Amino acid sequence: MIYRLYLSPISAFPGPKLAALTFWYEFYYDVYPLYGQYTFHIRDLHEQYGPIVRINPYALHISTPQFYDTLYASTKHTNKWYWFTRVFGMDGSTFATSDHDRHRSRRAAMSPFFSMASVRRLQPMIEERVQALLKRLSELKGSGVVLRMPVVVNAFSNDVIMAYTFGRSYHRLEVPDFDPANHESMHEGSKMLTLMTHAILLFRTIQSLPEFLLSRMGYELATLVELKNSMRRQVIQVMSEKNDAHKDLSHPTIFHALLSSDLPPEDKGVERLTEEAHTIIAAGQETLSLILTFITFHLLSNPVVLRKLKEELAKAIPDPEVVTPEATLANLPYLTGVIKEGLRLGYGICGRLYRVPQEHLTFSAGDCDWIIPPGTPVCMTSALIHHDESVFPNSNEFRPERWIEDPRLDRYLVSFSKGNRSCLGINLAYAEMYLWLAGIFRRYGSPEVRFESDLGAFELFDTDISDVEMWADRFIPVTKPASKRLRIRVIE
C-alpha cells in the first residue's frame, strides 16, 4: 500500500488515490456493479486531473491526440503489457505477443498476406461474396423478413476471412438465417474480455474444461472457448493435410503458407497456430461487422448523406454489373469519407491499448513536462480521441465531409492503432468496406432516397441511434442492454 501510493515510479502522477492503490477501483467501473464504464470515467478523470492520469496501480492514460504518434510510433522499441494481453488466453498469437522482438518475427511471417498488393489480388473472392449477399437480398425483397444487420455483415466477413486463412468458407451467407450463432459466439465472447482481465485464473480453468461441461456454463464463457476449439480443429486439418483446399485456389492461404515458412518449429505448433487463427478470425469479422453496421444505420437515417454517396457511386459505376477495381473505389472521396467517419464513430476496438516503452518518454502538458519511466504501461483510447472536440468539432455528428475538407484529420483516425503493432489486416478491412458499401448502395437505397436503377431499398425496423452507439466498453463497443441492434427490411 505504501509503495503504490508513495514509492512507485509513477506515484507523482495525478489521479485518484484509490485507483493507484488497487485494481478494485477499475473493477468497480468495468465489471461490477457498473459494466464497461471505466472508459467514460477515465474521460471524467481527465477533466478533473488533466491530460495524463494514473488509472490503476501500474498504468497511465493519456488523452492528448497529438501524443498518439509518440506512444505508438513504429521506431519505438515497445512491449505490450502482459497483464493486458494475457486476458485473451492466446499468448502465442501475434496480437498478444508482449515482447517486441518476438512480435516482430511473428508479424513479419504474416505481413506479406496483408499487403495492399496481396489484398487487391483477393478482390475476385471478396466480390464473389458480395454477389452472394446481393442474391440473398434480392430473394428477401418484399418478404417482410427482418434482418439483423450485424449477423448479415458477420456472415460476409467470416466467409471472406475463413477463405483466406484456411482456404475454406462455411458459406454463411447462404445459410437461411445467416447463421446467427457464429455472430453471437464472437460478439458475446468478446464482451467477456474485461471480466477476464480481473479473473484470469477463472478463464484459464474454463479453457481446460471439456466441451460437454462448457455447454452447461454461461453462454458467453462457453462460446468464447468453443470458438477457440473450432479453430484448433481447423489448424489440425491443415497440418494433417486433410484440408488441401488451397491447391484449387487462385490465392494463397495464410495457414498453409505459415507451415512452410521459416518460422521456428515452436511457432508452428498446433496451440500456437490455433491462437493465431483465433485472433485473425476474431479481428477479421467482429470489428468489420461493427463498423459496417454503424455506417449502414447512419446512411439509412440520414437521407442527405445517402444521396451524396449514391450520386458519387452512380457516376463512378455507370453499370453496376461491371466489376469496379477496389483501387478505383478507394479514390472516391465521399465513399472514403463515409468509411472514415464510420471508423471514427464506430471505433472498431475501443478498449485501452497498452504499450510499455523501454525508454523514457516525455509528455508535455502546458508548462509541465512529465517524464514517464521506462517499463511503465501507458495507454490511449480511440473512443476518447475520436471525440476530442479540438480535433473533431461536433464529434457526435456523422459528417463524411470533414475528411474531404481537412485531410490532416487522417492523423487522428486511430481505429486500427498505429506503428509496428497496428492492425495487420487494415488493408483487407478497407477492401471489404469499399467493395461491400459500393456493391450494396449502388443498387439499394432507402424509402427517402431511391434511384431509378435501384433494385430495392432498406427500411429501418424499430431501430434508433441507441441501438448502434457505444453504451459500454468491453474492448469492443457494446450497445445498451436488451438492444437488438440494427434491424432492417428489404422493400421493393
Q: Can you describe this structure?
A:
GO terms for molecular function: heme binding; iron ion binding; monooxygenase activity; oxidoreductase activity, acting on paired donors, with incorporation or reduction of molecular oxygen. Heme binds at residue 423. Keywords: Heme, Iron, Metal-binding, Monooxygenase, Oxidoreductase. By secondary structure, the chain is of the alpha+beta class. 48% of the residues lie in helices and 10% in strands. It is built from 23 helices and 13 strands. The protein has helices at residues 2-7, 17-21, 24-30, 38-49, 68-72, 82-85, 100-110, 116-120, 123-140, 149-166, 180-190, 193-198, 200-207, 211-214, 219-239, 254-259, 270-301, 303-316, 326-329, 333-346, 382-385, 401-405, 426-441, and strands at residues 52-54, 60-62, 78-79, 146-148, 353-357, 361-365, 368-372, 378-380, 444-445, 456-460, 472-474, 476-478, 487-491. The strands form four sheets. Strands 1-2-8-5-3 form a five-stranded mixed β-sheet. It has a four-stranded mixed β-sheet with strand order 4-13-10-9. α10 runs antiparallel to α17 (270-301) and α11 crosses α15. It is globular, with a radius of gyration of 23 Å.
The biggest beta sheet reads: 5 strands, mixed
Tell me the domain tally: 1
**Could you say which overall geometry the principal axes of the C-alpha atoms support?**
globular
Decide which structural class fits the backbone: alpha+beta
Estimate the helix proportion, in percent. Answer: 40-55%
CATH class category label: Mainly Alpha
CATH superfamily name? Cytochrome P450
Rg on CA atoms, Å = 23 Å
Number of strands: 13
- Give the spatial strand order of the biggest sheet: 1-2-8-5-3
GO molecular function: heme binding; iron ion binding; monooxygenase activity; oxidoreductase activity, acting on paired donors, with incorporation or reduction of molecular oxygen
Family: Belongs to the cytochrome P450 family.
Binding site for heme: 423
Keywords: Heme, Iron, Metal-binding, Monooxygenase, Oxidoreductase
